[in-house]
Protein: SDR family NAD(P)-dependent oxidoreductase
Organism: Vibrio aquaticus
Amino acid sequence: MKRVLITGATSGIGLQLAKDYAIQGYEVLACGRNQQRLNELSQASRNITPLIFDLTDPAETSAAISNLPFIPTLWIFNAGDCEYIDDGHIDASLVKRVFDINVIGLAHAIEACQTYFEPGHHIGVVGSIASEVALPRAEAYGGSKAAVNYMARTLQVDLKPKGIDVSVIYPGFVKTPLTDKNTFDMPMLISVERASEEIRQGLSKRKSHIYFPRVFTSVLRLIGTLPYRWQNAITSKLLA
Ligand SMILES: NC(=O)c1ccc[n+]([C@@H]2O[C@H](COP(=O)([O-])OP(=O)(O)OC[C@H]3O[C@@H](n4cnc5c(N)ncnc54)[C@H](OP(=O)(O)O)[C@@H]3O)[C@@H](O)[C@H]2O)c1
């Protein structure tokens, strides 16, 4: 039987992935902090086993992962959060909160899980298309996702000789509780159902880089090839 661990499975993209993989017949380890959501998930499908821990707490993460009921072959590191900076006024505690979950939390998760990694296993890391260009107000979030992107791409290089594939996932805007907080227009916003499908399809083909939605992420990647001053002129208008 196919087995997957998903962090951030109580909401948004991770929740949809957990439901969809369970329907596909996977045994799913659904991770998060929200006990009620995890209970609802495991009650909704007997293929879903909840794992509760806070990724910013290394001891809690390690304790939860050290006692897995089964060993996954697919590991999806998806948990994350987004907070924006206002008017270019850096708030170090905000930056720390965002990096603590998106970067250090990711490292805690991988550190705890890596003892189980074996040849043939597959890792998916959810980054963001925000890592490709400097977007307005994204000093903390974009910076954290640039770090995630670098970490995941480096892992691709280092784990390949061990027979372990790493896929880096670059979503554009997806409608979730995370983006429901946004007050600006989000071009080409897609549903979680579509995001889950794109991710599952990309992972099933073992794509090393999974970008979606195609048009929006292609435009941003194209902008990312321009001189920085042109990039800034375009992105400041794109997400005003
Ligand atoms: N939505 C988008 O447009 C978009 C675009 C690009 C990239 N992404 C990335 O996609 C991922 C999922 O985003 P989403 O939109 O689905 O967000 P979401 O609906 O807010 O879900 C975030 C998930 O992360 C978990 N999480 C947050 N902090 C945690 C912590 N300290 N410990 C353990 N789990 C924690 C949450 O679980 P608990 O609350 O139960 O802890 C929740 O399940 C994130 O990495 C995000 O950066 C999203």
About this structure: Residues 92-113 form the longest helix (22 residues). Strands lie at 3-6, 27-32, 48-52, 74-77, 122-126, 165-171, 209-212.
